[in-house]
Amino acid sequence: METDATVRLLPIGQVHGGRLEPVDDDWDPVTAVIRLDPAQFDEQALRGLEAFSHLEVVFHFHRVPPERIETTARRPRGNPDWPEVGIFAQRGKNRPNRLGVSRCRLLAVDGLDLRVRGLDAVDGTPVLDLKPWMDEFGPRGATGQPAWATELMRSYY
């Protein structure tokens, strides 16, 4: 059976405020607002969300030009001390579909505005989806990662 593989997404909202440039580190103190699109949603879409401490946000790396997309291996952040790893073994922004996923603290819900802290998306970023963080969706059992990833993330949040 042949299917259409095209996926079309309509942003549900946009990031307002926070950083203007995508700097790699120190995202934890950054506050921003995720504003839902009033043409698509009213306040009922966010009912009950204020009971959660954190959100998972799916967004589009809209400032990455298509010609900068990576599909092979590279050294994260160009660091020669780290190994070459494939694009799917890292969380860089130059991904094939330019999708970002971030977990951030929900500070407040005000109408269609969500005030958040620690969202690693810049002002103007299209938001594609958001979900409340629930502990049960976290990893079950021990987790593992290479030393370079721990070093890379040391100052990220």
Automatic annotation (TrEMBL):
Spans traversing the lipid bilayer: none
Keyword Transferase: yes
Residues of the TsaA-like domain: 9-142
Gene Ontology biological process terms in this record: methylation
Taxonomy, superkingdom: Bacteria
SUPFAM superfamilies in the cross-refs: YaeB-like (SSF118196)
A matching Pfam family: TrmO_N
PROSITE patterns assigned: TSAA_2
The keyword Glycoprotein is annotated on this UniProt entry: no
Keyword vocabulary terms for this entry: Methyltransferase, S-adenosyl-L-methionine, Transferase
Entries under InterPro entries matching the protein: TrmO-like_N, YaeB-like, YaeB-like_sf, YaeB_N_sf
Gene3D superfamilies in the cross-refs: YaeB-like
A GO molecular function held by the record: methyltransferase activity
Similarity field: Belongs to the tRNA methyltransferase O family.
Identification of the protein by name: SAM-dependent methyltransferase
Organism, scientific name: Kitasatospora nipponensis
